Amino acid sequence: KDGTKVLVLFLSSLVVGICVFHVVLDEAQINFFAINHKFRKKGFGTYLMNYLIKECEKLNINKLFLEVSHTNFTAEKFYNRFDFSTVGIRKNYYQDGSDALLKEKKLPTK
Questions:
Q1: Residues 31-80: pLDDT tens digits?
Q2: Which residues make Cβ contacts (< 8 Å) with residue 58, sequence separation at least 6?
Q3: CA separation (Å) from 90 to 58, 71, 98, 99, 106?
Q4: How far is CA 5 from the centre of its chain?
Q5: Is the overall model pTM greater than 0.85, yes or no?
Q6: Which string of b and e fits 69-93 if b means at least 16 CB within 10 Å?
Q7: Contact between residue 68 and residue 43 where contact means Cβ atoms under 8 Å apart
Q8: Count of alpha carbons within 13 Å of 81, Cβ hemisphere only?
Q9: Is there a contact between 65 and 30 (Cβ–Cβ < 8 Å)?
Q10: What's CA 93's distance to the chain center, in Å?
């Protein structure tokens, strides 16, 4: 799909992490960000997120968005470490009826 980009983090031939994001003009939406359970809490998520942010800066992205369930405290804490702030709520967004927190990170502009 045009504008969709995929980052895959490998360790040897094993997929450790994946990030799928979509670029529209000067904004990007993270549609999927996951680290293999066996490799969590070892710095791989931080590495992948830092890489994503650098790639977005190269693409002159001004804002990076994502949704995260309001019940996913681990993920929300992770995103907050990268200065994502909650800018909205999508009520009943997920199949289980939980709300999504719409989070935004502003990137430096050139």
A1: 999 999 999 999 999 999 999 999 999 999 999 999 999 999 999 999 99
A2: none
A3: 30, 13, 9, 6, 20
A4: 12
A5: yes
A6: eeeeeebbebbeeeebeeeeeeeeb
A7: no
A8: 11
A9: yes
A10: 17
